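Session log. Operator J.P. requested a structure for one protein chain; no other inputs attached. Running the standard single-chain path with token output.
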Amino acid sequence: MEWVKVLHLLAVLGWMTGIFVAPRGLIFWKREYAATGEFGPAGDLTVRVYRFSLGLGVVAILSGLWLFWWWGFPLWAWTKLGLVGLLALHYGWTGRLILRARRGIFDESDFWLRVFNEISVLGAIGVLILVVFKPF
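Structure written below.
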């Protein structure tokens, strides 16, 4: 079972990288597109980070569900699962923003994208508190 925990932690680290980096990458991509009118390195990097971390997100969720089952479905883990679901929705929304950006559509302001990016940090902090303290 310890190997499943290791796999889960490694996958979570990779997925969190994408969750934190992709929205921030959209800010730089938007600025680059405004300056050049072309799909440049910032866009390429944002797409690559998103794609790579997507697979790790799937592994993180599947291994997390395995651990959830192994631990007997405690209440704190249900709460964690809810937060992870919200992070997955956030990640999906980021993917939608990336698809629009590939078409040159950047409707959101830099400020909006920064706030959007920080929302995921709050979700990750909530997950960490639940996993470390197991309050219920």
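Operator note: DSSP finds four helices and no strands in the chain.
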